[in-house]
Design brief:
Layout: H1 4-12, E1 26-27, E2 48-53, E3 59-62, H2 63-68, E4 72-79, E5 84-95, H3 96-100, E6 109-114, E7 119-123, H4 124-127, E8 133-138, E9 141-142, E10 152-154, E11 167-173
Parallel strand pairs: 1-5, 2-11
Antiparallel strand pairs: 2-3, 4-5, 5-8, 6-7, 6-11, 8-9, 8-10
Bound molecules: ligand MTE and molybdenum atom (MO).
């Protein structure tokens, strides 16, 4: 996109701090829905979240067990590779650090997997250190199914395709394994501030 785009949206939205919009992105107050397939509707009594793979023991939480963990309120800017950015989105959920607490592993990579079959890969260190959450509320309300309810991953420092909707598990892997979009040419890491959209970026 030509650089004029930022000025254009900036002048239409004087309250938007242009320094918070990564290169090539534009501000939107909307919340677009981007899904590669139909929205799954898994009943909560059949739902669980699992950490498995190269770990000393599989960990699983039911819906009630997830809600019983310490919760955090998160305010974050999100950036979709299709070029929209949304500022100050608010979420409620559990830090991935909490889920990883006590997990022994040699793995350095994670595949997030979902109801519906979507996957995405993220370095384990990017899910630790207070930078990633498993969230179930958006804007104070239960997360809409279209936006990933009951539970999605939130990794706001990477492009939003890494924030897997309808999350059911994190599989820790020794080898890095490209996920759904990464296998179609999206960047393996996806830092919006370095504009890592595609493998060649
Ligand atoms: N399970 C699943 N998660 C997904 C996707 C998907 O198709 N399936 N799309 C990704 C992409 S490309 C983006 S931009 C965001 C969109 O989230 P939203 O629909 O809540 O805006 O979800 C990401 N997580
Ligand atoms: Mo996206």
């Amino acid at each position: 996109m030509p650089p004029v785009t930022r000025g254009f949206f900036g002048s239409r939205n004087p309250d938007v701090d242009a320094s918070r919009i990564p290169p090539g992105q534009y501000f939107t107050p909307d919340f677009p829905v981007l899904s590669a397939g139909p929205t799954p509707h898994t009943p909560l009594d059949e739902w669980s979240l699992t950490i498995d793979g190269a770990v000393d023991g599989t960990k699983t939480w039911s819906w009630e067990e997830l809600l019983a963990l310490p919760q955090e309120e998160i305010t974050a800017d999100i950036h979709c590779v299709t070029k929209w950015s949304k500022l100050d989105t608010t979420w409620t959920g559990v830090p991935v650090d909490t889920l990883l607490d006590g997990v022994e592993t040699e793995a350095e990579h994670v595949t997030a997997w979902c109801d519906g079959g979507y996957t995405t890969n993220v370095p384990l260190e990017d899910l630790a250190g207070g930078r990633a959450w498993v969230v179930h509320r958006y804007g104070g309300e239960p997360l809409d199914p279209e936006h990933g309810g009951p539970v999605r991953l939130l990794v706001p420092h990477l492009y939003f395709w890494k924030s897997a909707k309808w999350l059911r598990g994190l599989t820790l892997t020794v080898e890095d394994e490209p996920g759904f979009w990464e296998g179609f040419g999206y960047h393996n890491y996806g830092d919006p501030w370095r504009e890592q959209r595609y493998w060649s970026d």
